[in-house]
Amino acid sequence: MPRRTRHHALFDKLRTPRRLPGFLKAASVCALIAGLLSPLAQTPAAAAASNDYCGGQCSDILPPGENGNATLAQILLNQAFGTQPSHAEDQLGPYANLATGYSTLTDAKINTFFNDASFGVASSQVASTESPAGRSDVTIVRDKATGVPHITGTTRYGTEFGAGYAAAEDRLWLMDVFRHVGRGQLTSFAGGVASNQGLEQEFYRNAPYTEADLQAQIDNAIANNGARGQQALADANAYLDGINSYIDASDSGRYFPGEYVLTGHKDSITNAGTIDHFKITDLVALASVIGTLFGSGGGGEVNNAISLLAAQEQYGVTEGTKVWESFRERNDPEAVLTVHDGKSFPYGTKPASPQGEALPDAGSVTTEPLVYNATGTGADQSASAASAAATATALSSAKRGMSNALVVSGKYTASGHPIAVFGPQTGYFAPQLLMLQEIQGPGISARGASFAGLSMYVELGRGQDYSWSATTSGQDIIDSFAVELCQDDYHYLYHGTCTAMDKVEQTNSWKPTTADGTAAGSYTMRVWKTKYGPVEYRATVGGKKVAYTTLRSSYMHEADSIIGFQMLNDPSYVNSPQTFQSAVQHINYTFNWFYADSSHTAYYNSGNNPVRASGVDPEFPVWGQAAYEWQNWDPTTNTADYTPASQHPQSIDQDYYVSWNNKQALDYTTASWGDGSVHRGNLLDDRVKKLVAAGGVTRSSLVKAMADASLTDLRAEDVVPDLLKVINSSTVTDSTAAAAVSKIQTWLTAGGKRTETSAGSKTYANSDAIRILDAWWPLLVKAEFQPGLGSDLYTAFTANLPVDEAPWAAHGPTGSHAGSSFQYGWWSYVDKDIRSVLGQSVSGPLAEQYCGGGSLSSCRDILISTLKTAAGTSASTVYPGDSLCSAGDQWCADSIVQRTLGGIKHYNISWQNRPTFQQVVEYTSHR
Q1: Section 566-595 average pLDDT
Q2: Contact 521, 192 (CB under 8 A)
C-alpha cells in the first residue's frame, strides 16, 4: 500500500483531532461534518461584458485549483476519503494531461488543457454572484468551470474591496501563513516542524524588518510617487477592508478555514479564538517574501572569494584567476540570449583594475549565527539541518526564481499576429501561492494571476488588448561589504567612526497541535545590522577582524513595485510596447518582462541596478568605505544612483524571444553561475528558432515547443551526444559499457525525454537509460574535473554551482518534487571540456583541459569506467525514496507534488518542467 504523502511543514503531520483515536472513522467524521457544514446560499446571475480584444484566443491555467480555502469539515473529508472542496483541484488534471496530450494538439484543443481567459462570464456559465458585505458598488461573479472570481466595481474603493474579499475567500489561510513567514513568526503561528523553522530562518536572514521598517517602506513609496502613490495607498486600504470584512463574516458564520482550528487558533465547538485582522504592514511582509524568493538577484560574493582563493592556491595567482574566470562564465560567447540581435548592455562586467577588494584570509570565514537560545525541538538534529539548509539557500547567488517565456513576432505567425506562451515557475503548493482573478473597475481592467495577499492588482496576466508575463532575471543588485570591527565584535568603522551595530531579534516558541505534533521548543533569531546591511559572515582580511554584510538595492523598498503593477492594470496607461516598458521600469525586482498585443511584442529587464564605484568588481566583497560605496548612496533610505532605463536589456519586435532564466543580452552579467554553452534556455531557443525559420507559427505549435522542452532531459539533448562521441571513438569491447551505451543511444534517438510509456502508466519509456544517466552524471563530473582542479577547488566550485539539478532533486525553498529542473548544473563545463578534448572549436573555453588531462584515450577510460559503475547502480540507490515514494520508484521520484500549506492534499502528477501559471495568447485586434 503506498505511503501517505508528507509534502510540507505546515500539515505534514495533520492527523485526527485528539478526541478521535488514531484514525478517522467514517461515522465520527460524518458526525463532525453534520455540525460543521454551513453552506452559503448564492444566486446565479449574468455577468456584464467587458472590452476584450483577444477574440477568444487568450487562455491560462493555474493548478491545482482556484479554491484554496477549506472548512474543518472539508479538511476532515479530504483526509478521510480524499474528497476535494469545489474548485480545489479542477485545474490539476488539464495541466497534467498536456504531458501526454501535446503531440496531437491543435488550436481548437488548447482549452482542453487550459482555461478560457476571456473577460467576463457568459450568463449560462455563472455559478454564483455576490455583493460582498452587502455593498452596492461591487459584485463578485464566479464561473462554473473553475470558480475564478470576476470582480466588477463601479467605484475604485468598491473594486479593491471586492478584490480583498475574493482573495480572502480563496486564500485566507495561505495569506496568513506568509505574512508570518515575512515577519519571521511562522513557527509560533503554524508549528515548529523543522521545515517551518528553515523557512522562517531563510527569509528572516534576508529581510529582518521591524514594524517601523515595514511602515517606513509604505511611507516612502507613497511620498515618492505622487498621485499614483496616493492611489496605491487608497487601493491597499480598500483591499485590506475587503480581507477583514471576510474574516469577520467567516468567523461569525463559522466557515473560516479549518486550519485555524487544527493549529489551535480557533475552537471548533465554542468558536473561541481570533483570526487577526490584516494591516498594511502585512502586505509589505508578504511582498518581502515574494521579492526575496523570485526577484532579488545577487549575493554569493564571499563564496566567490573562497573559490577564487582556492583556484589561486591550486594554480598560482595568474593562472588560478584565469581558471576561475573561465568557470564563472560572466560573458560566455556561447550562451543563449534573450536579446539576440547583437546589441550590448554592459553591466556587472570585470573592471580592468579592480579596486577595494576585501578578500578573506584563507580559512577564516565563518557564517554569522542566526539562532540563539534554542530549546526543545528548536535545538534538535532536524532543526540544525533545516537551519543549515536555510542558511545555504539564503546566502547563495543561485536564487530559485524560475519561469519561462516563448514570444513570436506576428511576422512569423500564420495569422500575422504575435503569439506568446509564458508564465512564472513558482513551484507547486496547495493552496497555490498564486491565485487567478479578473478585476474590472475605474482605472483597472485585467485578468490573470497575483500572489495571494497582494492581489489588489493582477501581477501577471492580460489587459484589454495586451498580455504580459515575467521570468526571474537574476542580475546582481546585492553586494557584500567588509566592515572593519572596532571595540568588540558588535562595533564597526563607518566613515572612520566606531559605530554600534543594531541588534534585531525575533523570539518564537511552539507547542504540539493537531496539525503539527512537533514537541515544544523555542529559539531567538538574532540579526546584527549595519548601515551596509545585515551581517552574514565574519572573517579576517589581512589579519584584521571584519564582518561581511549584504546590501541589496530592494532592501527597505519592498513596497515600491506596487506602482508598476498599478500601471500594468491601467488600460489608459498601457497601450503600446513603449508604455508597457515604461510601466515595468517602476518595478525594482529583478525580472524579465514580456509583452504581446495584436501587432507588437516587447521585452524589458527590470530592477534597481546600483551604479557602483569605479573599479569595484561586483563578484567579490569590497571594503565598507566611502570610496567603494554605490554612487550617491544614502544609508538612511538605502537609495543610490541606478543605471538608467536605456542601459537595461530591452527590445521591441525582435523576431522571437525566449527566456528560461538564461543570460539577457551581450555583456550583461547575471549573479548566478552557469550562463554558458549549455543552459535550459537552449531547449526553448532551438525549438522556437526552427518554428520561426519555417514560418506559420500557431498557438498550438508554440505550446508544443514549450511542452516538448518541458519533458526533455537537458543533459541528454545537449551534452550526452558528445560524451558518446568520446566513448565511441574506439570500439566498446566491455559488454556492460556497450549495453549501457546502446540503451542511452536508443533513448536519445527517441528524443531524450522523461515521459510515460502511456498516459497514467507511471513508468518511463527508456527508464533504464534514464536511470543510468541519473547515476552517471555526478560520477562522470567528479572523475572528469576533480583530479585537475584538486579536491579543495572542486568543492569550492560546487558551492558556487551545484553539479546537477535533476527532476528528483530538491530545489531550494521550493523543495523536491517541484518540477523545475536543469536550471543550475555543470553541463556547460562538461560540454566545453569534452568538445575541447574531441578537438572541436570552443568559443570561451575553460582555461584548462580536464577530462583525462586532455587525452582522448584517458578521457574515454574515465567515461567508460564511470558509466559501468552507473549501469550497475540499482534504481533504489539512485532514487532512495521519501515519504511519498518507495525506493527505486523512478516516476514517483520525478513526479510533481502540490506541497501542502494547508489541510487539503492532492495527487502527484507526472514530471513537467514548465510554468506553474501559464498563458497562451494571440490578440486579434487593438483599441
Answers
A1: 97
A2: yes
Going by their DSSP bridges, the two strands 656-659 and 404-408 should be labelled as: antiparallel
Instruction: Give the DSSP letter string of 16-29.
Output: --TTS-SS--HHHH
Angstrom CA distances, 641 to 496, 588, 629, 632, stand at: 23, 13, 11, 6
Residues 201 and 526 sit within 8 Å (Cβ to Cβ): no
The backbone torsions φ and ψ at residue 345, rounded to the nearest 5 degrees and listed phi first, read -130, 80
- Is the pLDDT at 649 greater than 60? The verdict is yes
pLDDT tens digits along 187-245? 999 999 998 999 899 899 989 999 999 999 999 999 999 999 999 999 999 999 999 99
Cell numbers found for residue 760:
497514467
Q: Alpha carbon 711 to chain centroid distance?
A: 19
Residue whose C-alpha is closest to residue 376's, from 202, 185, 193: 193
290, amino acid identity = I
Q: pLDDT, tens digit, for every residue of 24-52?
A: 333 333 333 333 443 333 333 333 346 99
Cα(25)–Cα(345) distance, integer angstroms? 64
Residues 6+ apart with CB under 8 A from 916: 62, 63, 423, 424, 425, 426, 427, 428, 432, 434, 819
Torsion of CA 83, 85, 91, 96, to 10 degrees: -20
User: Is the pLDDT higher at 808 or at 340?
Assistant: 340
- Let me know: does 310 contact 324? Beta carbons within 8 Å: no
CA distance 197 to 204: 11
Q: Show Cβ contacts of residue 135 under 8 Å, excluding neighbours closer than 6 positions.
A: 158, 161, 162
**The residue to which cell 486579434 is assigned:** 924
Q: Kindly tell me if the per-residue pLDDT of 402 is higher than 70.
A: no
Kindly report each contact of residues 889-893 with a partner whose C-beta sits within 8 Å and lies 24 or more positions away, as own/partner: 890/763, 890/764, 890/767, 890/770, 890/771, 891/756, 891/762, 891/763, 891/764, 892/762, 893/807, 893/808
Rounded CA separation 646/344 (Å):
11
SS3 content of the chain, % helix, strand, coil (to 5): 40, 20, 45
* Per-residue pLDDT band at 297 (split at 50, 70, 90): confident
Q: Residue 138: which of 154, 127, 150 has the closest Cα?
A: 154
pTM of full prediction above 0.85: yes
- Contact partners, residue 598, CB within 8 Å, separation at least 6: 53, 410, 417, 418, 465, 923, 924, 925, 926
Confidence (pLDDT) at 5: 33
CA-to-CA distance for 404 and 836, rounded, in angstroms? 31
Q: Is 508's pLDDT higher than 60?
A: yes
Measured CA to CA, the distance from residue 311 to residue 846 in angstroms comes to 13
> Would you state the cell numbers that stand for residue 578, as one nine-digit string?
513603449
pLDDT score of 590 = 94
422 Rama class: left (phi>0) / alpha (psi -120 to 50) / beta = beta
Distance, CA of 149 to CA of 140 (rounded, Å): 6
Name the grid cell of 596. Answer: 504581446
Q: Please compute the mean of the pLDDT values over residues 691-702 and round it to a whole number.
A: 98
Measured distance CA(407)–CA(459) in Å, rounded: 19
> To which H or E segment does residue 448 belong?
strand 444-451
Residue 120: alpha-carbon gap to chain centroid: 30
Sheet holding 918-921, edge to edge: 115-116, 58-61, 918-921, 419-423, 404-408, 656-659
Q: At what angle do helices 226-253 and 211-223 cross, to 10 degrees?
A: 130
Q: What percent of the chain has pLDDT over 90?
A: 87
Q: How far is it, in rounded angstroms, from Cα 213 to Cα 637?
A: 10
